[in-house]
Structure formats: C-alpha cells, structure tokens
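Q: What would this chain look like folded?
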Amino acid sequence: MRALIVGYMTPRALVLLFAAIPALALSHAVVTPAESSLGQTQQYTLHVPNEKGVPTTRVRLLFPADIDVTTVNEQDGWRLTVEREPEGRITHATWTGSLPPKSTVCFTFTARNPATPATLAWNVTQTYDNLTVEWTGATGSKTPASRTSIH
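A: My prediction, written as structure tokens:
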C-alpha cells in the first residue's frame, strides 16, 4: 500500500513528507539548535510539548558539564529556580507552572559552548499532574535526551 501511495506523490510532496517524519518522531523535550560551533556563545531553546491529558506542572533541565550557562530566561506564567555549584556555575534550571494538554512551551537560555568537539546531552525531567517522565535516555530509546553536536 505504501508503495502505491508514494508512487502517486510528486517529488516535492515526497520531500515534505520525509522531512516531517523526524519532527513527528521528536514529540518530547527538545533543545535547539541541534548543532553549534566550538566556543560560541549560543542561545538555546528548550521546547516542551504536552501530549498527556493532564497539565505539565514542572520542567527541570540539567545543564551538561561541558557548557557555561550565562543566562536562564524567565517565561511568562512560570516560576524559574536556578541551581548553582558553590563556585557559581549554573547546573540546573527548573520552571514551575501549568502547561495544558496539547500545548507547547519554550524556555530559553544562553551558554558558552566548549572549545573542543562534543555532543551535549540535555537531560530533562517533565512532571505532569500524575506522573514524571525523564528525557534522559540514549538516542532511539522511548525517552531520549535531546542532543546538540558542537563542532
């Protein structure tokens, strides 16, 4: 059946279809951009969708040890708490609020990338009214951590 449907699609429609497949598969907490430059100060965005039938009430992001977070931005309707090491390095950000089902919220922060090539894993804990999901797994798992390639 798939071959029949694909056979009737224009090349442009095929490109759009296959370009959309990765976006559909990434229905979890995702940090963008997926690639960035060595040593660059980068603004990152954490996209958190709510696909459950209850509100998301808390989002906690663990910052990779390879980066130096300089700014974590507030988001309207959410309370921000930042955790630091004794030396002052920002290690976590937690946003507490309410994200209704079928909605997405975006949180932004700025960080200085490492000076050597790295793959940053963004570990996120998303708390709903009745459960918690940890987006900390390996690529291909049911709950993968988002990743950014630094080169």
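The radius of gyration is 18 Å.
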